[in-house]
Amino acid sequence: MSGSAASMRGSPARFNPLSSVRARMRFRFVLDGSAYSKHKDAFKETLKRHGLMFRGTRETFVWASRQESVTATFERDEAQDVTIQARLVWQSRKKTPLLNEIKEWVWSVGGHGGEEDDATPDPSASDAIDRELAIWDAIHKPDVDRLRRDGRPGAWIEKDVRDWQRKRREKRRELAGRFRPT
Question: DSSP strand E in the chain: where?
Fold first, then answer.
């Protein structure tokens, strides 16, 4: 075994809830408020059919299952009691049949949207990401030559390098999410 269960559980490199959230796929959709209002029952029925339960509040509208979630935000005219615009965000680790149904429903009622790419940062942020990664690499990148000189087995060194590469990809995704414009 490579480490005790307690040390693996407490290791921040093993589990980072923020990086796991950012690693999810996101699709954003925008609809006209009147179109959403007219067809929202079909939307809610689709969510129910796929096992999503309402877990939000009166201000935050979230439907979720263990695999995926849909968050809705609305721009409203309270004086006239009408919805001006509806914005939906679907999230999951992988594409699901629900996503396809939501796409069909959104486009059928005149909305639009598509995938949001977390891995592609704002071009102006790429320098900041590169600087952060350079610092991270200076601390975490295995020194292969030193490890060989110290007599570490080649298979262990290869595993160290693969682990570092995986963690570096996770760090890049985390930084891309942090530097993404809002």
Answer: 25-32, 53-54, 61-64, 68-77, 82-92, 112-116
Rounded CA Rg of the chain = 22
Q: pLDDT for 116-163, tens place per residue? A: 755 454 555 677 788 888 898 999 999 999 999 999 999 999 999 999
Mean pLDDT for 55-80 is: 86
Q: Which of 81, 55, 80 is nearest to 66 (CA)?
A: 55
Choose the CATH number for 24-116 among 3.30.70.560, 3.40.50.10210, 3.30.310.180, 3.30.2160.10.
Answer: 3.30.310.180
How far is 62 from 40, CA to CA, in rounded Å?
14
Give the integer Cα–Cα distance in Å for 113 and 136. Answer: 35
b/e 110-138 (16+ beta carbons within 10 angstroms → b): ebebeeeebeebeeeeeeebeebeeebee
Residues with Cβ within 8 Å of residue 83, at least 6 apart in sequence: 33, 34, 36, 37, 74, 75, 76
- Single pTM value for the model: 0.54
* C-alpha distance across the termini of the chain, in Å: 43
